[in-house]
């Protein structure tokens, strides 16, 4: 067992974990933060995307021990007091989800894009989301939502 | 999927990492960004007894100049490489090719050195570093040694690093004034290159004075298209480039898999080499 201290969505957790434990399993099974889904388990689909020290990562491809001393933001840490962020609101307004399974990962990847490029073109949005798959193939509205959010002052 | 159990250490210096690797022997694995190793562990294709996490060793991340060389530390991520002003100025081919690797989240974690040490012939960066005439600096219990890219890639997923050696730096001669292009053929955006061609071209008086071409996924190791490189010397127009590209698949040993036959890969190599060289030479 290895001792870790991780700040997740503003709360610091201290735990002893097996080195082989994946970050996504730590978030879901140990902390109960099931807002982050496991999609493909092969690093392809991006459903499990979270932020680790401010950048997007696929939490199925990070060990919990690698997050020791770090700060993690999951989709559950975005809204404050029930108030959705502009990006979340845009996903709602533009019908950017059908089954919703890819949505947490799409939101986290889109936040990453908007931090680097506050006003992306649709091409840039598509490139930035290439690591996130939507099995409902609802990409058109996802792109529209990200674009709509980019027109807000504080998008993510 | 859950990886097999392993012991884990997180050394705080290169010396400490090398000692851990020496103790672990063949059963130890280096963890850098983990974007190749973790999928292998999850799929239970690798069973290390010890994982040595070098991710927190100070001084391993970053890019610096050393005379006419560019030095890229082992923990420098793909994202760092794509955005680094020194890389963009002196090794634009590397920045351009790295931007095509996987997706943004993977590029935040994955490292250049990790990708080279993994030595996957379908990875984009081995052929790029080979075309750039790069060299790797390895540190082990016997000290440091420098390995030229052409001697570094030994076989499929096998580099010339010893089990107790850590790749600490990648050194690239500055390619100022060279035109460059990385042409990658793959069926979906995140998949590995079916074939990739890394082209560097130096022009003089409207002709190609010198060309270097690295091939991704055309053998168990990255290759240089030497016949085409020689044939390109003096080429002055698109027709001459197309003629030179006809020999791009000479000496390759492409594999057969579900997505392509060797013959198809050879065909792709010729076509992509022509495109890459034309783009690199500004003749496209």
Describe this structure in words.
Chain A is α+β, with helices and mostly antiparallel strands. Chain A folds into two domains: 2-77, Beta-grasp domain (Ubiquitin-like (UB roll)); 86-150, DNA polymerase, domain 1. Chain A has helices at 23-30, 86-93, 103-116, 122-128, 139-150; strands spanning 2-8, 11-17, 49-52, 55-58, 71-73. Chain A has a five-stranded mixed beta sheet, with helices on both faces. Chain A is globular and about 45 Å long. The model of chain A has no long low-confidence stretch (mean pLDDT 96). With 284 residues, chain B is an alpha+beta fold. Chain B has three domains: 7-53, Uridine Diphospho-n-acetylenolpyruvylglucosamine Reductase, domain 2; 64-173, Uridine Diphospho-n-acetylenolpyruvylglucosamine Reductase, domain 3 (2-Layer Sandwich); 179-280, Enolase-like, domain 1, CATH 3.30.390. Helices cover 33% and strands 26% of the residues of chain B. Chain B has twelve helices and 14 strands. Chain B has helices at residues 14-24, 37-42, 78-83, 85-90, 92-98, 104-109, 112-118, 124-131, 149-152, 226-232, 238-245, 262-280, and strands at 7-9, 28-31, 50-53, 63-66, 69-73, 135-140, 143-148, 153-155, 158-159, 166-173, 179-185, 195-204, 207-216, 223-224. In chain B, the strands form four sheets. Chain B has a five-stranded antiparallel beta sheet with strand order 4-5-10-6-7. A four-stranded antiparallel beta sheet of chain B has the order 11-12-13-14. In chain B, a hairpin with a 2-residue loop joins strand 12 and strand 13 (207-216). In chain B, helix 5 (92-98) runs antiparallel to helix 8. The longest helix of chain B is centred in the C-terminal third of the chain and has 19 residues, at 262-280. The radius of gyration of chain B is 19 Å and the shape is globular. Chain B starts with 6 loop residues before the first strand and ends with a helix. The model of chain B has no long low-confidence stretch (mean pLDDT 97).
């Amino acid at each position: 067992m290895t001792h870790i201290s991780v700040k997740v969505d503003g709360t610091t957790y201290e735990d002893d974990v097996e080195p082989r434990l994946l970050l996504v399993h730590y978030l879901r099974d140990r902390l109960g933060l099931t807002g982050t889904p496991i999609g493909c388990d092969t690093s392809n689909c991006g459903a499990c995307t979270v932020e680790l020290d401010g950048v997007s990562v696929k939490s199925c491809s990070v060990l919990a021990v690698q997050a020791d001393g770090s700060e993690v933001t999951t989709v559950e840490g975005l809204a404050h007091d029930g108030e959705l962020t502009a990006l979340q609101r845009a996903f709602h307004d533009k019908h950017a989800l059908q089954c919703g399974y890819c949505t947490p990962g799409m939101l986290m990847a889109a936040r990453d894009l908007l931090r680097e490029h506050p006003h992306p073109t649709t091409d840039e949005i598509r490139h930035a989301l290439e690591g996130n798959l939507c099995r409902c193939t609802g990409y058109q509205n996802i792109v529209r939502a990200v674009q709509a959010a980019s027109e807000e002052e504080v998008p993510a | 999927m859950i990886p097999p159990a392993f012991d884990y250490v997180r050394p705080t210096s290169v010396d400490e990492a090398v000692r851990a690797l020496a103790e672990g022997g063949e059963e130890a694995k280096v963890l850098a960004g983990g974007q190749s190793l973790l999928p292998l562990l999850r799929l239970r294709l690798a069973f290390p007894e010890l994982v040595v996490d070098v991710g927190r060793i100070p001084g391993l991340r970053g890019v610096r100049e050393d005379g006419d060389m560019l030095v890229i530390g082992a923990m420098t991520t793909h994202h760092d490489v794509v955005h680094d002003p020194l890389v963009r100025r002196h090794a634009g081919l590397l920045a351009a090719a790295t931007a095509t690797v996987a997706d943004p989240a993977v590029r935040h974690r994955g490292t250049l050195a990790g990708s080279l040490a993994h030595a996957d012939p379908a990875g984009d960066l081995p052929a790029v570093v080979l075309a750039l005439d790069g060299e790797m600096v390895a540190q082990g219990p016997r000290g440091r040694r420098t390995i030229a890219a052409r001697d570094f890639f030994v076989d499929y997923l096998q580099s010339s690093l010893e089990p107790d050696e850590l790749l600490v730096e990648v050194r690239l001669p500055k390619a100022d004034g060279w035109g460059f292009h990385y042409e990658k053929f793959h069926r979906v955006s995140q998949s590995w290159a079916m074939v990739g061609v890394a082209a560097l071209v130096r022009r003089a008086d409207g002709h190609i004075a010198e060309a270097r071409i690295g091939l991704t996924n055309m053998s168990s190791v990255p290759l240089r298209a030497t016949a085409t490189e020689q044939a390109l010397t003096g080429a002055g127009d698109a027709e001459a480039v197309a003629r030179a590209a006809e020999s791009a698949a000479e000496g390759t040993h492409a594999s057969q898999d579900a997505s392509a036959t060797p013959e198809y890969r050879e065909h792709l190599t010729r076509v992509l080499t022509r495109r890459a060289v034309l783009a690199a030479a500004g003749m496209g």
